[in-house]
Description:
The structure holds 2 protein chains of 2 kinds.
Chain A: E1 2-14, E2 21-28, E3 33-37, E4 41-43, E5 46-49, E6 55-67, E7 75-83, E8 89-98, E9 104-115, H1 119-128, E10 151-166
Antiparallel strand pairs in A: 1-6, 1-10, 2-4, 2-7, 3-6, 7-8, 9-10
Chain B: E1 9-21, E2 29-35, E3 40-45, E4 48-50, E5 64-76, E6 84-92, E7 98-107, E8 113-124, H1 129-138, E9 160-176, E10 183-184
Antiparallel strand pairs in B: 1-5, 1-9, 2-4, 2-6, 3-5, 6-7, 8-9
GO biological process, one term (chain A): cilium assembly
Pfam families (chain A): B9-C2
Keywords (chain A): Cell projection, Cilium biogenesis/degradation, Cytoplasm, Cytoskeleton
Amino acid sequence: MAELHIIGHIVGASGFPQNSLFCKWGVHTGGAWRLLSGLKEGQTQVDIPQTGDVAYWSHPIDLHYATKGIQGWPKLHLQVWHQDSFGRCQLYGYGYCHVPSSPGHHRISCATWRPLGSWQEQLAQTFVGGGPQLRSPDLIYSGADRYRLHTEAMGTVDLELGVIMRHFDKYGVES
Amino acid sequence: MATSNPSAFLLTVNGQIEGANFPEYDNLYCKYCFVHGHDWTSTSGLEEGITQITCKGSQSSRKLIWNFPLETTFKSTSPSGWPQLVVSVYGPDVFGNDVVRGYGATHIPFTPGPHARTIPMFVPESTWRLQKFTSWLLGRRPEYTDPKVVAQGEGREVTRVRSQGFVTVSFHIMTKDMKKLGYDTGPASPANTQSATSGWSTEEQPINM
């Protein structure tokens, strides 16, 4: 069995309309993968930057997977939310990225998008907030049924992920 | 000493906590500790320590310099729970009380070679304005009872923090027997590796973020 370690952190986010952001993240894998240790989903703290507009989370990720096949390589999916001073939460973006498949340090910028409603919903959103959300988060990292969506671009989430691979070369996998 | 079938690998960290960039605060000192998983033990060097108190120089760069040495060696059977360096920065407030100015953590790099890291620092934030005022007045700011919490991912969902300032750290990493155990950590880092946050400062924000 080959093993994969994902060691890194979600650095922060920028380019969103307002600060006071947090991120819900998760890692999705195929059926051949087994999680040996670590948490495969979580939620960061809410960060309000003192200066500038980059929200920093530094949320650590430390995962250890064992696998029998390279199909279903891990994918990291993210939801960026905004929390205002009253504690109400509003969705600011969905995004996903594949975990890199070559060992070493990687810096990844994950772009995010938000579903767009009708013009009436957009008008209400500028005044009251809120907005449409996906009913099931699977659509963030899968391509099926995406053609039904109309979305707008939002900010970027930065990640630093390190990948350590073990025994992949014994099975003839080149990476 | 050399074994043909090692059961554990070693990680040697030589580095320094170079300094910090806090535009609003001065006269700061830093406490650091290493946090790691159950498979890891420290075989030599200190796992925690306190730096000196430093203030900004008269040069226009307004940097705080600690130049504090880090020399530790770890031993482990698995990369799970890879060590992290947790730093907490403290300084005096207007009334002279010692208050926390930031917590931060970064993973120790795992590729051999030189590395530079810029760690963003944050403080827990009170939600009530009245609580913010009384904690400013009495010098009792919200702080973590155990700074090692910063290295974990669980339990962060309900906390609100304010990020202010950065701490710069540099590492020189060596590993022993990782390849013999089958671990591939990728290419050794080139001479001038900068982390994604090293270009960020609180004075100017890069536009292409």
